[in-house]
Backbone:
């Protein structure tokens, strides 16, 4: 049995805004095993990126972790002071490919400069050695090592995304969070990047959290899948179970909304309405205003995640 | 045989590229981005014609040419049999715009943030002088909102665009296109910025409007799955040319052009058993710039079937490979 590299329990991260408290991550628990890819999906605004940032120990202001635990390789990181997080955890134990990062590369510095900065800063490496390592990682992601001397505008979108991936891997973290790493890319480039991530997973035994709202892309890479709705994980388990026997009405609806390339679909299903405001989320089951099966109990009491099969949990009163 | 609503013939749009002072001094010839380079197709009433391809292949430029937001470098455009390529007077263009409407990709930036939804919808009515009185216009606005299921309209007309969700905003954009009762709608990536569930909602709505109201669409997308679902016809574009065209199902289930095959192979599908398999992508490299279009078949540097001496020197033509199925490849049917 592979060992657990990441253990998250009852994690809560709220944004304290002037209009109220946004409960973006609310009682989230899951585990990630070594060499495993956990896919995280859900509609825009359900808290996927917020969860990613929280796991990095860096919620965006005005966000604060208000409860729960995050253990990376057995070590608790909630409550660690910022300088310890920066020196010992972030990028070295857990790293993140940020949503839209390839467009955030600094245009005035070379690729090499942007890649070696953390090596010199975190590892106290000499410049030569750091550059050498950057070149090795560029090769690993399928780029020519000379790219260290190039500027971002000289690279295509696919190449920039490869640079961002290499940068996230360069300190050999135990866990990598990839937030929408292929969303802005064209379909061929997107497939090339997914192939790259599969290869890295196999060759480096990477443990990864792969975030996207696109369930088709998620199926291409995830061993396990977690579906988020309004700040909570409402279904989680083995990916084949999630795709073929989805238990939660929300997961079922999301899957029925995908047009298929080789199948004739008469009518796409869609979920009426929109995800709730997380300042005042609905009572009971947060999905109840949009759920076709909502009952009295759904409006009153919140369902807990319940085991419905081996490695398959869902939170719904119907189960 | 019925006549097409829209017909474009050998349409071209070349954008000049700035040479820079040095280039000009050296007497270098001016360069062009050949964004659209000889495109022909027909769209029939109550049908959806999809233009599919990767970014930069010329889809939006084609849409803007059809909308007459750009002047073509060459080629002709016919609407309902009438040549509309050289509309000159303001009057003629205004009349054309009334018949041909556009829905843009970004529901967030396609609306004036200071306008209320009411103003967003009243603007086209005022421009085209439709509705004599305020009451008449209000009725048209409410009807358009009801059509796209923004109900009850009175709850929404006073809001500003930022007070709507992405899906609602895109529905308002559709209402704005429909309010003039157009013959033809150019929809440029209308769902690509939306969540899957909202995407399905908008596609269903556009499909319903086609079936009930007889709307005809040019649907521009990079997503082959939605094209299969929504479109009757698919044309695949590569570097400014249509390289394959036919009924949607034929193009997707029996693709002939190597580029179409590569695009299809790359589409992710929700089938988790394949997660540990590295996907075969029958294509090399990335799209070259539209300034330096390769000689011969413009796809040849990326084609795994490329035949030296033929593909890299002679340009293939789009030919009818089988009934209604057009392909631009020297080796069509042989690979
Ligand atoms: N810095 C912030 N301050 C206040 N609220 C925030 C902040 N960042 C995010 N939120 C809110 O928290 C919720 C979750 O946002 P998050 O960015 O995690 O969503 P997401 O699932 O990643 O969405 P997407 O798919 O659009 O990237 C949303 O309601 C969002 O508006
Ligand atoms: N106004 C313009 N000036 C110069 N080049 C342009 C202009 N508009 C588009 N292009 C170029 O034309 C090509 C096709 O662009 P576009 O039609 O937007 O493609 P798509 O919509 O398929 O992504 C691209 O190379 C693009 O950079
Ligand atoms: S708990 Fe009730 S409202 Fe929530 S998903 Fe289940 S049936 Fe629907
Ligand atoms: S003409 Fe030649 S290079 Fe072009 S697509 Fe056909 S086989 Fe490939
Ligand atoms: Mg996000
Ligand atoms: Mg475009």
Residues:
């Amino acid at each position: 049995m592979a060992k657990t590299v990441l253990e998250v329990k009852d994690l809560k991260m709220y944004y304290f805004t002037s209009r109220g408290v946004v409960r973006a991550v609310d009682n989230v628990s899951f585990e990630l095993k070594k060499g495993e890819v956990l896919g995280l999906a859900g509609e825009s605004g359900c808290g996927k990126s917020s969860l990613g940032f929280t796991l990095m120990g860096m919620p965006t202001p005005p966000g604060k972790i208000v409860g729960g635990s995050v253990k990376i390789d057995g070590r608790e990181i909630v409550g660690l002071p910022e300088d310890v997080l920066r020196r010992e955890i972030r990028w070295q134990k857990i790293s993140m490919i940020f949503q839209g990062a390839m467009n955030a590369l600094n245009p005035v510095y070379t690729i090499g400069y942007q890649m070696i900065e953390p090596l010199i800063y975190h590892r106290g490496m000499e410049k030569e050695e750091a550059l050498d390592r950057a070149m090795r990682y560029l090769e690993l992601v399928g780029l020519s090592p000379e790219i260290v001397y190039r500027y971002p505008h000289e690279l295509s979108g696919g190449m920039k995304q490869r640079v961002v991936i290499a940068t996230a891997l360069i300190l050999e973290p135990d866990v990598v969070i990839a937030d929408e790493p292929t969303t802005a890319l064209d379909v061929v480039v997107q497939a090339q990047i997914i192939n790259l991530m599969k290869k890295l997973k196999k060759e480096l035994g990477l443990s990864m959290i792969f975030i996207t709202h696109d369930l088709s892309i998620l199926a291409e890479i995830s061993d396990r899948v977690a579906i988020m709705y309004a700040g909570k994980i409402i279904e989680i388990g083995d990916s084949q179970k999630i795709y073929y026997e989805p238990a939660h009405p929300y997961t079922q609806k999301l899957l029925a909304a995908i047009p298929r390339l080789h199948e004739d679909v008469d009518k796409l299903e869609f979920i009426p309405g929109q995800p709730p405001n997380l300042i005042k989320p609905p009572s009971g089951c947060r999905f109840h205003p949009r759920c076709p099966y909502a009952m009295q109990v759904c409006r009153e009491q919140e369902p807990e995640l319940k085991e419905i099969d081996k490695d398959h949990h869902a939170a719904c009163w119907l189960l | 045989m019925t006549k097409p609503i829209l017909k474009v013939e050998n349409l071209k749009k070349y954008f000049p590229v700035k040479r820079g002072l040095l280039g000009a001094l050296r007497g270098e010839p001016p360069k062009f981005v050949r964004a659209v380079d000889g495109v022909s197709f027909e769209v029939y009433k109550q049908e959806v014609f999809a233009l599919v391809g990767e970014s930069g292949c010329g889809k939006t430029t084609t849409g803007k040419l059809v909308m007459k937001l750009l002047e073509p470098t060459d080629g002709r455009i016919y609407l309902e049999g009438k040549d509309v390529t050289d509309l000159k007077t303001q009057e003629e263009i205004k009349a054309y715009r009334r018949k041909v409407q556009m829905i843009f990709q970004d529901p967030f930036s396609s609306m004036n943030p200071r306008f209320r939804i009411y103003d967003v919808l009243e603007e086209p009515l005022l421009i085209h002088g439709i509705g004599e009185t305020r009451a008449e216009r209000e009725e048209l606005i409410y009807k358009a909102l009801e059509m796209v299921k923004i109900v009850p309209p009175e709850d929404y007309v006073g809001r500003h665009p930022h007070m709507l969700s992405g899906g609602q905003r895109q529905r308002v954009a559709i209402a704005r296109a429909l309010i003039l009762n157009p013959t033809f709608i150019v929809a440029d990536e209308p769902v690509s910025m939306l969540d899957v569930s909202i995407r399905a909602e908008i596609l269903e709505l556009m499909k319903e409007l086609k079936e009930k109201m007889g709307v005809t669409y040019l649907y521009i997308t990079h997503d082959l799955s939605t094209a299969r679902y929504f479109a009757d016809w698919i044309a695949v574009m590569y570097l400014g040319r249509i390289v394959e065209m036919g009924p949607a199902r034929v193009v997707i289930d029996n693709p002939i052009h190597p580029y179409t095959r590569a695009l299809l192979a790359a589409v992710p599908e929700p089938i988790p058993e394949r997660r540990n398999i590295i996907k075969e992508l029958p294509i090399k490299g990335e799209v070259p710039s539209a300034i330096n279009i390769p000689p011969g078949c413009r796809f040849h540097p990326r084609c795994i079937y490329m035949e030296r001496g033929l593909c890299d020197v002679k340009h293939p033509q789009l030919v009818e490979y089988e009934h209604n199925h057009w392909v631009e490849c020297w080796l069509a049917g042989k690979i």
Observations:
- The first helix of chain B runs from residue 20 to 25.
- Chain B has one domain: 6-327.
- The mean pLDDT of chain B is 92.
